[in-house]
Structures are given as structure tokens and as C-alpha cells.
Amino acid sequence: AAIATANDTECYLISPCGNIEVTDESRTASEYCNMRMAPAEFCTDTSVCRIKKTGSPIAESLGYFNLEDSNMLSAVDNNVISVATKPSSNHKQALIQYICKTGTLLTSPIFISQFTSNITEFHWYTFAACPQGVSIGSDCLVTEPTTGFTFNL
């Protein structure tokens, strides 16, 4: 998904299930955003890339969603939050809060805010986040039976 900010000075490319698509071709920031591809120089092996329409560098990685790690998925106020982290000295993070909204399955995330230079938050309103039943776990771990995801509560 490609998400523009309210002031349209940057966009975010997000792939919550793996790496975003990258290219070695030189493009403008707007072209990267419209093509939904990131510059390989800055955003290889990442799930979230911020592309700035002014300034330098043109892009930066905000981390990778590791859905195999149940510690990267959390439940807060009955919503699932997915955390992308960038293992480096600057500890960049992107948070996606999945929020239940009935009747809306094919949606895109919405940019909410950048708390600090290191934490960026998105909300994703979708029916896929709505509870489908009750699951009971143990030791603060619950497995969602349809997807097999384990949540560390």
C-alpha cells in the first residue's frame, strides 16, 4: 500500500506480509510513490519505507514486519498492533493498529502520526480485524484458529 501524509510532503510504502518492491532505477519521489516501488539503495529488505518529496536522502527504511515472531504482534484495546523494527542504532519503528470496521475488507492503512523521529503510527480499518469468535490460550499466548497467528498478550 502507498499512503500519503496530510501535507503531501512524503509517502509511506507498506507491506505488512513481507518486503516492499524496490527498483534500482532512479526516479522522483512522486514516481516512487505512484509506482509503489522504493529505491533499492535505501529500502531493500524492508516492510515500511518513507519516501520524502524534499530533502536528502530521498527515502529511509522504517523496519520489517516479522509475523513469525509473536512478540511483534500485540493486542491493545481489542485491536491488533503489528510492529516493524529496524535493527540498528537508530531503532526505527512503524506501528500498524488494525481496527475492526465491518463491511470494509479491501482498505489501506492511514498515516496517523510520527511520534518522534523514530516511531511512526498507522491505523488500518478493516473487517479482517473484527473478532470472529473467542479463542482461549494459556501463559498469555492466544492462537487465532483461522490464521494460525499466535498473539503474545
Describe the protein's architecture and organization.
- With 153 residues, this protein is mainly β.
- Helices cover 7% and strands 41% of the residues.
- The protein has two helices and 13 strands, in the order βββαβαβββββββββ.
- The strands form three sheets. Strands 1, 2, 5, 6, 7, 8, 9, 10 and 11 form a nine-stranded mixed β-sheet that branches. A two-stranded parallel ribbon has the order 3-4. It has a two-stranded antiparallel sheet with strand order 12-13.
- The relative contact order is 0.16.
- The model has no long low-confidence stretch (mean pLDDT 77).
Strand percentage: 35-45%
Low-confidence stretches: none
Number of distinct helices: 2
Give the mean pLDDT: 77
Q: What's the β-strand tally?
A: 13
Helix content: under 10%
* Sheet with most strands: 9 strands, mixed
Report how far the terminal alpha carbons are from each other. Answer: 27 Å
Secondary structure class reads: mainly beta
Order of helices and strands: EEEHEHEEEEEEEEE
Note the overall shape.
elongated
Q: Determine Rg (CA atoms, Å).
A: 16 Å
